[in-house]
C-alpha cells in the first residue's frame, strides 16, 4: 500500500495480536470521544488504546514524526482517508482509531 511516510515502521497490536482490540469506529463522522455508557467498550480495549496514545505522544514530544495506518490487509489505497490528529486537542480518553484511515499525528 505504501501510505506510511516514515522510514521506521512497526506493526502495532494489542492482546488479539492485531489492532482489532483497540477502540475503533468505522467512520470518523462521530469524531473522537470518550467511552459512553450507552455503548459499552471492553476495558482492555480502552486501556490498550490509551497506551498507544501515550506511546505516540511520547514520540511526538521527543520530536519524532508519527503516522499510523488502520486498515484491513486487502484495503485499496483509494479507500484510505486521511486524518490529522492534534494531540493537544484530542485527549487520551477521546482517542480512537477509524477503519481504513491514515493518521498523521502532531503536537
Q: How far is the N terminus from the C terminus? A: 26 Å
Radius of gyration, in Å, reads: 13 Å
Q: What count of structural domains? A: 1
Order of helices and strands: EHEEEE
Low-pLDDT ranges = none
Structural class: alpha/beta
Largest sheet: 3 strands, mixed
Our count of helices gives: 1
What is the share of helical residues? 10-25%
Shape: globular
**Spatial arrangement of strands, main beta sheet:** 2-5-3
Give the averaged pLDDT, no decimals.
Answer: 89
> Which range does the strand content fall in?
15-25%
Structure description:
The protein has one helix at 43-61; strands at 24-25, 67-70, 81-86, 97-98, 101-106. The strands form two sheets. A three-stranded mixed sheet has the order 2-5-3. The longest helix has 19 residues, at 43-61. The chain is built from one helix and five strands. It is globular and about 40 Å long. The protein is 18% helix and 19% strand. With 107 residues, it is of the alpha/beta class. The mean pLDDT is 89. It has one domain.
Q: In summary, what is this structure?
A:
The protein has 107 residues and is an alpha/beta fold. It has one domain. The chain has one helix and five strands, in the order βαββββ.
List keywords for this structure.
about 110 residues; alpha/beta; 3-stranded mixed sheet; two-stranded parallel ribbon
